[in-house]
Amino acid sequence: QVQLAESGGGLVQPGGSSRLSCAASGSARSINDMGWFRQAPGKARELVTTITSSGNTIYADSVKGRFTISRDNAKNTITLQMNTLKPEDTAVYYCYAGVTLLGGGHYTSWGQGTQVTVSS
């Protein structure tokens, strides 16, 4: 099993920046795509960004040009740098990882979520 530990987040003023990190630990054959979803109150969970093991990235239109995801495969960590934050970025951010198990099965591991609040 692979566990994900998130850090970062908190209260940020509009226009400010914040950084989230997610570290994967445990045993697996491989950790594949990693990324972040977010869920605002009363809304469905939405994909924010994803990064493959080779470094290819996808961003939601709402965060393009403001958010940057990076990955350290040696440490099994990802970082989300969030700039020019807006009140509508307020949400609980969840890290996820696509995992291939030692036995060959696949599943998605999720972090516990971290709150990001953008408010003055």
The assembly state of the depicted protein chains is single chain
The structural class is mainly beta
Beta-strand percent range: over 45%
Number of helices: 0
Mean pLDDT reading? 96
> What is the distance, rounded to the nearest whole angstrom, between the alpha carbons of the first and last residues?
40 Å
Low-confidence stretches: none
The radius of gyration is: 14 Å
Q: Count of DSSP E strands?
A: 11
- How can the largest sheet be summarized? 7 strands, mixed
Order of helices and strands: EEEEEEEEEEE
What is the molecular shape? Answer: elongated
Task: Give the helix proportion (percent range).
Answer: under 10%
What does this structure look like?
By secondary structure, the protein is mainly beta. The protein is built from no helices and eleven strands. The model has no long low-confidence stretch (mean pLDDT 96). Strand 9 and strand 10 form a beta hairpin. The radius of gyration is 14 Å and the shape is elongated. The relative contact order is 0.32.
